[in-house]
TrEMBL record, chain A:
Pfam families: Acetone_carb_G
InterPro entries: Aceto_COase_bsu/gsu
This protein's name: Acetone carboxylase subunit gamma
Annotated source species: Xaviernesmea rhizosphaerae
Domain of life: Bacteria
Automatic annotation (TrEMBL), chain B:
Full protein name: Acetone carboxylase subunit alpha
GO cellular component terms listed in the entry, alphabetical order: cytosol
Positions of the Hydantoinase B/oxoprolinase domain: 52-625
Species: Xaviernesmea rhizosphaerae
Source organism superkingdom: Bacteria
Molecular function as annotated in GO: 5-oxoprolinase (ATP-hydrolyzing) activity
Transmembrane segments: none
One Pfam family in the UniProt entry: Hydantoinase_B
Classification via InterPro entries: Hydantoinase_B, Oxoprolinase-like
One record GO biological process: glutathione metabolic process
Length: 164, 738
């Protein structure tokens, strides 16, 4: 069944302003095949830079095409981290909660982790100080690469068009 | 209804279709899928496309029959786990053992029962012990096809004249399985020999009746014998109701149409999942590891072989390929061990399956077609595919549940990329504290119990809303805490209170759903053995997009308490533990207090008036907490879900108290505080490359605690790929080891 949603409905979805009834309808109904293009348009409207968005990668992070053709991970505030296939976290600011005192800033004592067993790594956007990801891993664990998208396959084989 | 049964209690040669054996049918089914990529080689779904109304009608008949079987049969059970919590489900299978349709309920087992049926076929049960009309088979062996010993299957063949046309299966969770300690999932022993009553795909009934010697064996070998035996009858009744519905359906549509339908339903299922992946997924690779602690070095109640500190490693990777195939891999998982949390491949497959039903394919039409559209890599010798088949698996869930939280987060990243924000969840929290135990109960009888409050945890935050409080379990989408009074009838522990627990929600722009806690007091029993289970030193789930995990757990018990005196004197007593930094238990009760992070314990003795705090989990959060609506933070504090002193350090929200005593957010002050916090974040953070350089030195020096070091060593030993990943990331020598 072909379904399409009004772009204002999707804007409200992104901003958390959709009524419960409409949200329920989106969840339980058939999915709209044109969602990707509409959401990319909405994300593009939400940032102040002009590089075209190829892929919303994570909250506040996008893969964009630079004028020279490179695909780069870029934040809402314009910080450019790295090429799309790299792990953006390796180019972020990181703060590690690895003492009881630091963990207890977020969790009452005994509701958090033991820093000998696990640490919280907080990855911030270097321009805005926004918290982009919290990694909970034991000491010595390699930084996790959450998502390595196959953009070429998506556009070519799933959307049936070349990558912009 | 035995009118379709021609030869009760006699062996029928070649009971498969067209005179084949079931083994032939299963092999042909596997071969043709391998060759064509389609279930049974079906390229055209003739009924579905040519007679869609008929197709849907048959499905509705079968689905309705399964749901009805569950709703009717559970009334036979006396067990609150089954009757109130709903820990049962039924499913219909093809002759080869693929599920066609299923009821509601604990549907993780739909695929594990498929594995049990295939085991019987592959092991030539047609010849010995025979598969005939009226036969009843039972299984609770996870190495054959089950999650763990407590989940008991009943499987009955469905014949039409002399031909096997399918199987009906039912599963219930038992309160006690006759393990070395009381409870349905006891642990602390080293291997299978403490797991309890094991029924390995066994013929336990003929002529639609249980063998009396089988029932007597059950009575003799479990503590809660009434519950076990009534649950046997619950499952058999449900299976018979399913069989009746199949007969009615065939009488209406004809045998040939029924046979064609069950093939098409599974191929449709496969195509649906592939289509869903292409519709909502994003091709690429995802990484989402999780961990859980087992702090048993000083726990003298566990077997000497298990008495050590251990960390489980679940290095989940998800891959979506261009053809819509969804694959999971746990390559890099560490080794199995002498505890009860090892996990056979069957439950891992089942867990993947049940997560699909709650995420990518949340439709009542899910069936084993999903199995043909996915794959899962489970390294041999690891905790999720042990190379020693006598491992203990009573509490497989302890490792399994955390290991799949990353699956939901990876799907969330996929949905975000595609724009389906309404589907995003930060994942689920784990389902504990798990309280089990037993002893001489308040009626003076030997007994055992497993408290299933665990089926109500907070849910993960969504992209557009907070998680829901105390309502769900990853293994049963229809969670129910059960009535306090029912548990008090079953367990010799009073509830001093049950309520929400502040600061269990994972923080975020949207926070996780709040968790709960109960405070229990042993009453009218001289002694009980009690377990507690859950993570204490780690977070076993995680948030997403800047959200934090929900709470970890802790142990807070008081032995030899003065509760009897407090009650006699009508003095204040605690109803909950509350804020652990200002514990109500510590403030009001005297006794031998145990208050630490060793949430996961072996079977410890308790006496009358001892207190036991049971802390459940809140859901993980989503997004930067500094982006949360300040008014929502004030509401959380007013509602008792967030301790006031954490509003500022977590959320940057400045609260003021109004004349009515309620707190409100000072918007201007909050804006200024958040700006200052963002600046402070950047000031105390470092460039990631500097962190990597610093942490590398720590790795090189081996300055990492023993269980984590042992985890790395084990993962590197079992997986050369993971070893190379670890060494490459930290720029270590090719022969580096701890």
């Amino acid at each position: 069944m072909s379904v399409s949603h009004d772009i204002n409905t999707l804007r409200e979805l992104k901003d958390g302003k959709l009524s419960f009834e409409k949200l329920h309808g989106l969840i339980s109904g058939f999915k709209d095949a044109d969602r990707f293009d509409k959401m990319v348009q909405i994300w593009q409207e939400s940032v102040e830079w002009d590089d075209p968005i190829l892929l919303p990668l994570a909250e506040h992070l996008f893969v964009v095409r630079k004028p020279d053709g490179r695909r780069v991970v870029k934040s809402t505030w314009g910080y450019e981290y790295c090429e799309a296939q790299e792990n953006w976290k390796l180019h972020a600011k990181v703060f590690v909660r690895d003492t009881e005192e630091l963990i207890n800033e977020i969790y009452p004592d005994k509701l958090g982790c033991d820093p000998e067993w696990m640490q919280l790594r907080e990855y911030y956007d270097p321009l805005s100080g926004t918290l982009l990801e919290v990694e909970v891993v034991p000491p010595g664990y390699p930084i996790v690469h959450d998502f390595k998208p196959d953009i070429d396959t998506f556009y070519r084989d799933w959307l049936g068009r070349p990558v912009p | 209804m035995l009118n379709k049964v021609q030869a009760v209690d006699s062996r029928i040669e070649n009971i498969g279709w067209e005179g084949k054996t079931l083994r032939q049918m299963l092999k042909e089914s596997d071969d043709i899928f391998e060759r064509t990529g389609h279930y049974q080689g079906l390229k055209d779904l003739k009924i579905r496309t040519g007679q869609p109304i008929l197709y849907e009608k048959i499905f509705s008949h079968l689905r309705g029959g399964l749901v009805n079987a569950r709703s009717t049969a559970l009334n036979i059970s006396a067990s609150p786990i089954v009757k109130e919590i709903g820990e049962l489900s039924f499913a219909l299978y093809t002759p080869e053992g693929e599920s066609v349709a299923l009821s509601t309920g604990i549907i993780v087992h739909v695929h594990t029962m498929a594995d049990a049926i295939k085991y019987m076929i592959r092991n030539n049960y047609e010849q010995n012990p025979g598969i005939a009309p009226g036969h009843v088979f039972c299984n609770n062996n996870s190495m054959i096809g089950d999650v763990h010993t407590a989940d008991v299957h009943t499987l009955i063949p469905i014949f039409w004249e002399n031909e096997l046309i399918g199987w009906a299966g039912g599963v219930t969770h038992e309160i006690d399985v006759g393990g070395i300690q009381p409870g349905s999932m006891c642990y602390g022993h080293a291997d299978r020999y403490g797991d309890g009553l094991l029924v390995s795909a066994e013929l336990v009934g003929t002529n639609d009746l249980f063998h009396e010697d089988y029932l007597q064996r059950c009575r003799d070998n479990v503590r809660a014998e009434m519950y076990w035996v009534l649950d046997e009858k619950t499952r058999l009744t449900g299976c018979q109701l399913v069989r009746e519905q199949v007969y009615r359906t065939i009488e209406e549509v004809g045998l040939d149409t029924y046979k064609a339908f069950i093939r098409e339903a599974i191929e449709e299922g496969r195509r649906t999942l592939v289509g869903k992946v292409r519709q909502m997924g994003f091709p690429g690779e995802y990484e989402a590891p999780t961990f859980i602690d087992l702090p048993w070095k000083n726990d003298e109640t566990v077997h000497p072989l298990a008495r050590k500190d251990t960390m489980m490693h679940a290095p989940l990777r998800m891959k979506i390929t261009g053809d819509g195939h969804l694959g999971l891999s746990f390559d890099g998982a560490n080794q199995w061990d002498y505890h009860s949390f090892n996990c056979a491949p069957s439950p891992m497959q089942g867990a993947m399956w049940v997560q699909l039903t709650q995420t990518l394919w949340n439709s009542d039409k899910i069936n084993d077609g999903a199995y043909y559209a996915t794959s899962i890599e489970l390294p041999k010798g690891s905790w999720c595919n042990p190379d020693y088949d006598k491992v203990s698996t009573t509490l497989t869930w302890f490792f399994l549940i955390p290991s799949f939280t990353g699956f939901v987060r990876s799907l969330a990243r996929s949905y975000f990329a595609r724009g389906y924000l309404e589907e995003i969840s930060a994942s689920y929290p784990c389902t504990w504290n798990l309280l089990q135990g037993g002893g001489i109960n308040h009626f003076g009888k030997p007994s055992a119990f497993t408290n299933f409050e665990i089926s109500c945890q907070g849910t993960g935050a969504a992209y557009v809303k907070d998680g829901e409080a105390t309502c769900a379990a990853m293994w049963n989408p229809e969670g129910d805490m059960g009535e306090v009074e029912t548990w008090e009838h079953l367990e010799p522990l009073l509830y001093l209170g049950r309520g929400r627990k502040a600061n269990t929600s994972g923080a975020g722009k949207y926070r996780g759903g709040c968790g709960a806690e109960s405070l229990r007091m042993l009453f009218k029993t001289e002694s009980q053995i009690l377990f507690s289970a859950g993570e204490g030193h780690v977070f076993a789930s995680a948030g997403v997009f800047g959200g934090y995990p929900g709470n970890s757990g802790y142990r807070h018990n008081v032995h030899h308490s003065n509760m009897k005196e407090l009650a006699a004197n009508k003095a204040p007593y605690p109803t909950l533990d509350g804020d652990p930094e200002n514990s109500a238990i510590s403030a009001l009760v005297k006794g031998d207090e145990v208050f630490d992070l060793n949430q996961m314990t072996g079977p410890h003795p308790f006496g009358e008036y001892d207190l036991y705090a049971s802390v459940q989990r809140g859901g993980p959060g989503l997004g930067d907490p500094l982006e949360r609506d300040p008014a929502a933070v004030a509401a959380d504090v007013n509602g008792g879900e967030l301790l006031e002193r954490f509003a500022k350090p977590i959320y940057g929200v400045v609260l003021t108290r109004g004349a009515d005593g309620r707190l409100a957010a000072d918007v201007a002050a909050t804006r200024a505080e958040r700006a200052a916090m963002r600046q402070r974040r950047l000031e105390r953070a470092v460039d990631a490359k500097d962190f990597v350089a610093r942490e590398r030195e720590r790795v090189l020096a081996g300055n990492i605690n023993a269980p984590v070091r042992a985890m790395y060593q084990s993962s590197m030993k079992l997986s050369s790929r993971w070893a190379a990943h670890f060494r490459t990331f930290w720029s270590l020598a090719d022969d580096f080891s701890f």
